[in-house]
Specification:
single chain, two-stranded antiparallel ribbon, globular
């Protein structure tokens, strides 16, 4: 990509695994090895152009064996999407849907309809790698968003500023970047006209009614015109501040440190020249050296959960993942506010407990019974067995040393007592599996 730096180092299994975490939910067994054989460019292309979707693994169900009811049962919307993250053959498509869910943060606390939230979720999936302008247009008219930010209560007689303000501040330009309070008011006028009806089943028949639209002249960003809601979207995307905002925000979902000035300029140029295309910018980011030689990126709770389950080929078989992910700070379809989730809280003292329990819940069905299981009483072999259980995650030397030290000391405590010699090895094996699951390398990638 002209002007955008590209990783020139080795693209092996370790690099492929990091790419699968940044652009998805981590590898299933063997996926990182297969991706590495494609080379960097082939690997990125396979992720951004994945073809028809296939689902790998057992169909989801609750703890009683019943199929999920994502439109109706509490928490089943979360389970339904988590299942897609685990079983999909198009991980980047689902990861982009998660990004847009955070970018255009909409909560069912305000919408009150799992059906409408899932409809919006499908919009993110269908348009997530296309044109940002088209995505913004569709989000603006989306029923869940119309309810969430009062777009359906915005008429020429009573303009509502909520969506117009957030469209500029959070979705397209950034706080204080090139717009004024006057622009907020004028955008509200331009966005008038959406309506819906209240029925016994809740809000329905969402539509645009020109008779509710303010047809007068508006002044937005210093330009006069009889602007409509579509013009509002176009004015924001073509604003001089938009490309910088878009590139920096999209970059932040893949790389935990800001792009340097040269990368920022090159990505902005690529974005604008592609007609506000999302896919070209994502591809350039995924090939950038910062992906592979930069600092680790902390995994959001649902990415962490999906990744653990993908790694051990476990499907959705319990509803516990809803409250566990919420405890870790992230329940899907319920972002805390219109600004989305605060990723600085993914590993704080409040949410860490949830991550520990997520690891425990993932491992519970595979726990070794100290009364029955026989395991070698050799620390090195126990560590190797635990790493094999997780299909050889790329742990760094300090982590491997800590695991070896723990196993050696724990087995040392069993010396001289027959029952300890029998039961300690499987107990240590269970503990090693858990410690690997909560290691720095599996918490961040």
């Amino acid at each position: 990509m002209v002007g955008v730096a590209v990783w020139k180092g080795k693209f092996g299994v370790v690099q492929a695994e990091r790419l699968l975490w940044r652009a998805g939910f981590g590898p299933r067994p063997g996926e990182a090895q297969a991706l590495a054989k494609l080379g960097l460019h082939g690997a990125v292309h396979s992720l951004t152009n994945p073809g028809a979707e296939r689902f790998v693994g057992p169909a989801p169900h609750d703890e009683k064996g019943f199929p999920l009811a994502p439109y109706d049962a509490w928490g089943h919307d979360h389970l339904w999407w988590l299942d897609r993250m685990i079983r999909t053959s198009r991980p980047l498509v689902e990861r982009m849907a998660l990004i847009w869910h955070d970018w255009f943060a909409t909560s069912n606390d305000g919408v009150g309809s799992q059906r409408l939230m899932l409809k919006q979720n499908d919009l993110f999936r269908q348009k997530g790698l296309g044109s940002f302008h088209d995505l913004l247009v569709d989000v603006t008219a989306d029923p869940a968003m119309l309810l969430w930010l009062n777009g359906g209560d915005n008429s020429k007689d009573s303009p509502n500023e909520n969506y117009g303000r957030e469209m500029m501040e959070l979705f397209t330009l950034g706080h204080g970047s090139g717009y004024t309070e006057s622009d907020v008011r004028e955008q509200a006028r331009a966005l008038t006209g959406f309506r819906y009806d209240w029925t016994d089943d809740g809000p329905a028949n969402f539509r645009y009614d020109a008779s509710y639209h303010d047809k007068g002249v508006k002044t937005i960003f210093g330009v006069n015109g009889r602007f409509t809601w579509r013009d509002s979207c176009q004015l924001c995307v073509s604003h001089p501040a938009h490309a910088k905002f878009f590139v920096e925000k999209l970059w932040s979902y893949f790389v935990p440190v800001p792009p340097d000035n040269a990368t920022q300029r090159a990505l902005r140029k690529l974005y604008v020249s592609s007609g506000y295309g999302i896919r070209p910018v994502v591809e350039a980011i995924l090939r950038h050296p910062a992906i592979f030689d930069g600092p680790r990126l902390v995994k959001p709770p649902v990415v962490y959960t999906a990744g653990l389950l993908r790694r051990i080929r476990r499907g959705i078989d319990t509803s516990d993942w809803v409250w566990l992910d919420a405890m870790a700070g992230q329940q899907l379809f319920y972002p805390p506010n219109v600004g989305g989730w605060d990723d600085t809280r993914w590993l704080d003292t409040a949410t860490w407990r949830g991550r520990w329990w997520i690891a425990q819940a993932a491992l519970d069905p595979y726990a070794l019974d100290p009364e029955k299981a026989g395991k070698p009483d050799n620390a090195k072999k126990l560590v190797a067995s635990a790493l094999g259980f997780w299909h050889e995650p790329p742990l760094e030397r300090p982590t491997r040393h800590a695991l070896q030290t723990f196993a050696h000391r724990a087995l040392g405590d069993a010396a001289g007592t027959d029952w300890k010699k029998q039961q300690y090895p499987p107990m240590v094996a269970n503990a090693l599996r858990h410690l690997i699951a909560v290691s720095p390398e599996l918490q961040a990638a």
